[in-house]
Fold Transcriptional regulator, IclR family protein.
Amino acid sequence: MKPATSLERLLSVLQLFSEDRLEWSPEDMMERLGYARPTLYRYLKILSEAGLLVSHPHVGYTLGPKIVEMDYLLRLSDPLICAAHPVLDRLAEEFPCTALIVRWYGDRMLCVDSVNSLAEPLSSYPRGRPMPLGRGAIARAILAFLPKAQALPIIETHLPDWQSLDMGDTPDAVYSALRGVRRDGASMAFGEVTRGVTGTAAPLFDLARSPLGALCLTLRQEDAADAETRARLLTRVTEAAAEIGAKLRTRHD
């Protein structure tokens, strides 16, 4: 669907940028978006003056420093980060892990905060990098608690990944397989996102019925090899997610 308003068209310029394409020339932007040259250059002027884009000779445009400034403010003000960070600190003291908070928005999920108690973080997806929706404990924890009508199109988009994990041959079958996560309140996956790493995740809720994100602990598989440790991980992650949710709901009281 094409953007309908001037604001939507302006925002579409920012949405061009991704990990796969970090630089854009005006000519490529016009070709991709179908904007007339005067329209595009008006948008580029607005975004550049706001610091959201920067022009580089012989390169084109990249994202600008205003985004870094806004990220700093986000870290200070996001209720989810503020509520979760002390919990992440405690979990990282309790387990040799990377403890992370993932926020869900639109059809994406990405880490917004993490605490690491190891020499190297146990995650292939640092803060801000969108995570896969077709594998892993975090994807399970979020998709299992989405309404079926919302979850099925996402599952269908990533169906080959779920099929490779023997989760089912159809979106309905995969969604049914995720019922166990709803029953247990948390999920665990082994080496699906990062090789040699076990992930344990639970959904996060505030006042809404759908999850706003997830809490996840990632451990080396050898540190989570026995049944007792796995059971403790599932219990602690579920309890910690409930604690964060309670803090978020208190803000609304």
